[in-house]
Amino acid sequence: MEKKKSVVFSQVKEKLKYVDWKLIVPYLVLLGTGLLMVYSSSSYFAMTQFNNSEYFLIRQLIFTVTSILVIFIVSMVNVRIWKSRTFLIYTGFLIFLMLIFLLVRGVAINGASAWINLGFFSIQPSELLKVILILYLGVYLSENQEKFANIQIVNEKSIFKKIYYVAKKPLLIIGLFILLVGLQPDMGGVIIISGICLVMILVSGLPLRYSLGAIGIITGIYLVFILFVKWQGTLPFLPAYMVERFTAFLDPFGDTKASSFQLVNSFYALARGGLFGVGIGHSVQKTGYLPESYTDFIIPIMAEELGLIRVIIILMLFFYIIYRIFKISLKVKDSFGQLVTIGIGTMFLIQGTINVGGAIGILPLTGVTFPFVSYGGSSLLVSTVALAIVNNIYINDQMRKRK
What we know:
Keywords: Cell shape, Glycosyltransferase, Membrane, Peptidoglycan synthesis, Transferase, Transmembrane, Transmembrane helix. Helices cover about 70% and strands about 5% of the residues. By secondary structure, it is mainly alpha-helical. The protein has one domain. Strands 1-2-3 form a 3-stranded antiparallel sheet. It starts with a helix and ends with a helix.
């Protein structure tokens, strides 16, 4: 027993030598910033609703401490666990059951039944789903990468043939999960999950020019969709509140609906803060003017209190983490590690871009939080696990290179 403990301790000690601090330090800075801003942005609402200005701070502090423990533990485990079919099947099935439960008894927040209420906090299964699908695709695509590379592309039809060949086996599973998330309805989750899966499939063997072409086609479809909503003002397959978010983004000052109210007050917060901000705790927009000030709209409150310059620094730290993840994907030797790190980097890139883009009015509002900074246990813990997996892959890759 003592010998086993000694071996485990020596393995952990060895792995600590290879921790990517260029990834961890910015993460810790974002955690600290998030804790400060959650307290500042939520204090007014917490006082009026719960008679305790520290209500959300205490919960976020618990999530933050737990996240720090999680990033250490997950970084130290054997990398083989992420490839384990048993782990993926059981975890995937559990998430499937949770998504089914949501359709029956989910907690509706802002129009979407995306949360399971556990009392102290709520679990959002779609957050867990992102990481599991990344690991699943990483295993499947890495095991079949050589087959994909051997398919010859001679015309446009063969491009779709190759994409279908790459995706046909996991397509049913991914499609089922996306359907369940869409039925909540959680369009932010659908966009992020679809984007992750698409990028991982495209980089698994498709030439760069065709990958860029596919992304261009999807972007074109999105623009046509936006223009259609602008002209028609409605879509039969989307709930009214989602259509409101699109129309608000297209003309925030010409619309009197709730989504426009949020967006206009987000603009006020951004403008009022100027370059240097009005100071911590002195936001006006958080005092009932800007709903979700500590979740979806935490960036505008940061801009109001800290100023544009400090917000840009925080955003640079976040996008540096993404840059670092993609850089690790280029350094890692095995295809599984490459695909998983690309998938996780894509997840953070899409989520961060959607949140900031929605807050500044260049993208529709989707209810997506800003990773590591916004209030929320599910989002913070899952984002931390994802980052820890990247660190774990990096550590194990560095140890193999040293042998």
